[in-house]
């Protein structure tokens, strides 16, 4: 059965299902059938020489369909371009950007291996095809819920009406009996479903810095820049200035695994002769590709390392000079010396004297730091020399190093090293984050959303605040707080801006809606959440509503998560696939992917994909606008997610327009038509797309006509519009440059502004920041106050805790430090159910080769990773390029739970969430210590675990409909004929 010799309509495709058998036959998707089964189930035809006929290629060559633009719709934030070839309502092929010749000045927007495998996700056998109910669950709570069977029970198919009746009846009951404290929005606060709860009765949310770690809470208070809640972005040099550096430092970065376009820009700089340095616990693929010098630093010990670097900068400058840029320090920083203390300082402690040990009797020498961070003393001194004023250095950081417990002072220490060398505001210098769309080509957004009536207007981010003060569980205590029935709150909400504060010039600024200053003024304000004294808040998780998230797989403390889910009255999962969170639900509501939509009444209910994540964030490169539109009609009984939420609101007796006042279609069209490009002379914003009266008629719209760079239809056909740039373009960028050009809250150029003063109370970079200390200490959570400068303290779950006796260096029960890097085959948990990428990139636990040898572990051995909180199995991959005592457990793999062991659950899938107890940050409650795991590893004596690609798709047990070719029995995936 192939498209070259057998007609396959959309309806017959749905009847056959896109399960393993039909997918393998029609679309080349790897299924879970045996070779013999495949041969008898419509395997692709073979040519005389034995090679297979690739049906999709035949269809493309024959011109039977059309290429349509799509993009990656999940959480990697780069938004690269893919094109789908659609034949009779089915995507049979993908490609990436080829509408223009690739060039450095106008690059193609190429998709990565994840995005180019997305057919395997859309047409996967694990898609939720129709609403389902857990067999033994009944409404009413208590024993009727049979919560002990969550995660193990079978499923039954129900209608949409039945499913929504169950959901709304239980919501009404729980609101009436318990109030809003009993409803938990088990989702990111910016998910579309989050906007529903303020309308229907409220909920308890969560807030954390899942991506940004400790960088999120002090960025603008220190004088740096934050784009909304994205800290320290857009202030590095752009791709044209990178080659002007002598050296680029990549601190905890691995963009080769992240698969962003940054490797293009970094490789270009390397070709121009720039040297690279990598700082981190393992010599990763990026460092190897760029030939970087490796500066070894143990997990979570970065602050100690940087303090020793600062010590050496002071020493070297005193001995021979020309290390510290004293002009920059004296004019544009505060707090390094007694002479530069800020006006609001409440102590006379300056930072130089702290580093020299004047206040605590501990000089922060390389010898002191080396014992903690494991960096050779000579490397610390070398790094300090590199950071000196006469070297042209760009310091790039990811956020990985700030996702450790005890990293609260890391951003300030990192900034201080850069400031002492004067690496701000000059060509060939820089200091900023390197992150997704901003990675390696920083600076102003050259294509910017116009706003106004065209803007994305669903009120998602503000949802927690609307339901009342202190409505967010903060940080990694999420599951433990739900289990305890109380949580500690230290801020009103995720974007609480606190009170106005004066700057050095006096007065207080007028803020924009998101707390940023649009035009320069002598009145500045730190865009930092303002904390209050910690308050205990009640929560009673009777209903957990999961949407646009997979919290069972992305929040730490999975054992407690299982307990919480099993204790609830009802768990709802709004999903596209059978995720772990869906496995522990009672009602599963199937929703469409971004590929799916319907504008044809003949096909049934009209719907359009939600533009959320696109129009609201514009998480694409600064000089590109990517097209996308629905490729196929919704599969099976899947519905567009906001249509589901609107119906719930209506059934609850409220107006859905209060949550979603603008249609998805209008948002989609307005998103593109509202885009503007910054003119080359920096004087105006010009429309990207041309829009005519004929377009209004064709697209059933009423937008003003405008003349742009390309017609709307041509833009959709090409898939992207990319700004033509050059090395002499005035729009090119160097961060913090004092050239009368400022940056507005959305990253746009504001010509009347200057880069200085900075958005801190002093208007300078604050090496001593009183606001930071007062803000953190106000909570009262830590009896030892944090300092206004980057002081060192022993962190929770840090290197020192791997010892039973630190002074005598006697190791404890859990001597290994595990951290959780993002893995190139997935983005968090997204994309990880695709067999192609599972086969290409297996999912081991990486460990130091000597540590493995000491434990009798070889490559490919199944190992048990364990601590006091949980146990999980993975295959080992020893590496020479990892520091001794360190372990890398790639984040986001799906759990496969074995509950047969009396000693407790074993995760045979190998999720790192089994090893975390939800330990909180020392000072900032919203920070998750994802990378702070202390464990032991031993060779497993049981049966070796299968590779992920050998497990087959995860399917809902008990569903044996004709379109489901596989089923689950006792956790073992088998195949049987439909």
UniProtKB/TrEMBL annotation:
Residues 127-651 form the Molybdopterin oxidoreductase domain. Residues 818-895 form the Molybdopterin dinucleotide-binding domain. Gene3D superfamilies: 2.40.40.20, 3.40.50.740, ADC-like domains (2.20.25.90), Dimethylsulfoxide Reductase, domain 2 (3.40.228.10). It holds the Pfam family Molydop_binding. Its cofactor is Mo-bis(molybdopterin guanine dinucleotide). InterPro entries: Asp_de-COase-like_dom_sf, MoPterin_dinucl-bd_dom, Mopterin_OxRdtase, Mopterin_OxRdtase_prok_CS, Prok_Mopterin_Oxidored, TAT_signal. It comes from the Bacteria. SUPFAM superfamilies: ADC-like (SSF50692), Formate dehydrogenase/DMSO reductase, domains 1-3 (SSF53706). Keywords: Metal-binding, Molybdenum, Oxidoreductase, Signal. PANTHER family: DIMETHYL SULFOXIDE REDUCTASE DMSA (PTHR43742:SF3), TRIMETHYLAMINE-N-OXIDE REDUCTASE (PTHR43742). Belongs to the prokaryotic molybdopterin-containing oxidoreductase family. This is Molybdopterin-dependent oxidoreductase. It comes from Gordonibacter faecis.
